[in-house]
Write a structure and sequence with these properties.
Elements (H helix, E strand, L loop, with lengths): L4 H7 L1 H12 L5 H6 L12 E5 L7 H4 L5 E6 L2 H10 L4 E4 L12 E7 L10 H11 E12 L8 H11 L2 H7 L3 H8 L3 E7 L4 E7 L1
Parallel strand pairs: 1-2, 1-4, 2-3, 4-5
Antiparallel strand pairs: 5-7, 6-7
Helix pairs in contact: 1-2
Length: 207
Amino acid sequence: MATVLRPLSYKYQWLYDTISRLAATSVGGERRFHHLPLHGLTIDSETQVLDLCCGGGQATRFLVEYSQNVTGLDVSPLSLQRAEKNVPQAKYVEAFAEDMPFGENQFDLVHTSVALHEMPPSVLPQILREVYRVLKPGGVFALVDFHQPTNSLFMPGVALFLWLFETETAWQLLETDLVRLLKQTGFASCEQRLHAGGSLQVIQAKK
């Protein structure tokens, strides 16, 4: 069950943005946070990029700095309206992540930022299969999301944040081995890096 702060944070973009910036301070700020999944990747102006569950374009605005071919996908019309206003350089599609209206082998990079924790465990494998399907051979799925802290000092802060702003699915992600799921989906290699006392995970999985 979500708290009252969760719907408020989605209703008012200034509140959502403030929360996002505060959360990003644990890794050195918002810009560094959104660049963590892109570290070491080769992205140029022709790279076909999908920003999966793009929300209001918080990460999309950094992706368009690299590529002129960025597509944002989200199921929320309100979020897409905000994204179109905030980052008009990208294209946008309204659809479910588990049923994307794209052909096979279409994207060089699929990116998602703190969105998988919104998904029920039963839907998560479907989403990963769709990501695999739309990626070109050799393409990369890059993500950042919550992780069970490896440093116990970070657990109270994570617990408070999830209690205030998230639902049960975020807690369930802490118990989920995303690397294992990605390998089961068919990804050839998965590199996982942990940040902020292990409370954030960055994964780059190659098709």
